[in-house]
Design a protein that fits this description.
Layout: E1 2-6, H1 11-22, E2 26-31, E3 46-49, H2 55-62, E4 68-71, H3 78-83, H4 85-106, E5 110-116, H5 139-158, E6 161-167, E7 169-171, H6 189-197, E8 204-207, E9 219-224, H7 225-242, E10 246-250, E11 255-257, H8 258-269, E12 275-278, H9 293-299, H10 308-319
Parallel strand pairs: 1-2, 1-4, 2-3, 4-5, 5-6, 6-10, 7-9, 8-12
Antiparallel strand pairs: 9-11
Helix pairs in contact: 1-7, 2-4, 4-5, 6-8, 6-10, 8-10
Bound molecules: uridine-5'-diphosphate-4-deoxy-4-fluoro-alpha-D-galactose.
The site of uridine-5'-diphosphate-4-deoxy-4-fluoro-alpha-D-galactose has 21 residues, from helix 6 and strand 8.
């Protein structure tokens, strides 16, 4: 089966590429390498450098015949999306439409979409299931929701079958150590903690300790990227065999606070990781927790690497070697 992975040299994309390689798929990666890492390109796959907004780039990929697309080429910094929304419009929205246009033109029927729990906004109840109202708090989350809505239309109008995968807090690295390129300029908690532990930065800040949680810091649902990768393959199988679209949460259903994660990381790296407590970051809910019951049931999927220790160990194995 021939698949296109947009953003396949990036953090999540490269882990999906690994999983696809293990299963023997014929893989084409399109990546403009802004956030992609050369170390994450594997020699047996076809690689086309360029932007998804550029239809001539996509033409090169689709002309060889593509059966399914995994779409990761998007910006993902929620804070930045509030100050530079047009950057997100042009890539996350426009870019995806150019991609969908190419799919329709070439008759590619299956689309696996990297969506986000950011589509829900502030939680109205926990754990968050797929029926929770969608009301994004940032423009990034809005771009994901807008694409999801369009995918439902393109299913109705054009028979395009999609899997919208709403990730909670993706983290970790391939436990077998095959991904060597770290994320460039990360904005998320765990890669920042790892950068401090490995000496790439001096310290980090904990955004608020006055939340209504046991230790006052925010609780999140961390999901290992290799568990995510498995779910992507199962999701493609599902939409193909059932010939129907799918929207599912991908989370571990376990919550850890910022302080808990810091402590576990300190135990794993065997030293203190310098940090200070500062004020709250705008738009952070106290607690996010997924219900992944639907995905587990429909996809027969179970996270294997998403307990905090395994997850952070898999990151430290890479960061300690930098
Ligand atoms: N945090 C810090 N210091 C930092 C970075 C983060 O204290 O330097 C805290 C945040 O305040 C938050 C927690 O760590 O309480 C996790 O923050 P992240 O920035 O790592 O992740 P978010 O929960 O904000 O968002 C992530 C993804 C979103 C997704 C969301 C779903 O980036 O795309 O998880 O749960 F929607």
């Amino acid at each position: 089966m021939k698949v296109l992975v947009t953003g396949g040299a990036g953090y999540i994309g490269s882990h999906i590429v690994l999983e696809l390689m293990e299963l023997g798929y014929d893989i084409t990666v399109v990546d403009d390498m802004t956030n992609g890492n050369e170390a994450n390109l594997f020699p047996n796959n076809q690689f086309i450098q360029g932007k998804i907004q550029d239809s001539s780039v996509l033409e090169k990929a689709f002309s060889k015949g593509i059966d399914a697309v995994f779409h990761f080429a998007a910006w993902k910094a929620a804070g930045e999306s509030m100050t530079d929304p047009m950057k997100y419009t042009l890539n996350n929205l426009n870019g995806t439409f150019v991609l969908l246009d190419a799919m329709l033109k070439y008759g590619t029927k299956y689309f696996v979409f990297s969506s986000s729990a950011a589509v829900y906004g502030a939680p109205k109840y926990l754990p968050i299931d797929e029926n929770h109202p969608t009301d994004p708090e940032n423009y990034y989350g809005y771009t994901k929701l807008a694409i999801e809505e369009n995918l439902r239309w393109f299913d109705k109008l054009k028979g395009l079958k999609s899997a919208c995968l709403r990730y909670f807090n993706a983290a970790g690295y391939d436990p077998k150590g095959r991904i060597r390129g770290i994320e460039k300029t990360p904005a998320n908690l765990l890669p920042i903690i790892m950068e401090v532990a490995s000496g790439l930065r001096k310290g980090f800040e904990i955004f608020g300790e006055d939340y209504n949680t046991e230790d006052g810091t925010c609780i999140r649902d961390y999901i290992h990227v290799s568990d995510l990768a498995k779910a992507h393959i199962l999701a493609l199988d599902y939409i193909r065999t059932h010939n129907e679209s799918l929207t599912v949460n991908l989370g571990s259903e376990n919550g850890y606070s910022v302080k808990e994660m810091t402590k576990i990381a300190e135990e794993i790296v065997g030293k203190a990781i310098p940090h200070k407590i500062v004020g709250r970051r705008a738009g952070d809910p106290a607690k996010l927790l997924a219900s992944s019951a639907k995905g587990k049931d429909l996809l027969k999927w179970e996270p294997k690497f998403s307990d905090a220790k395994t997850l952070i160990e898999s990151m430290w194995d890479l960061y300690k070697s930098l």
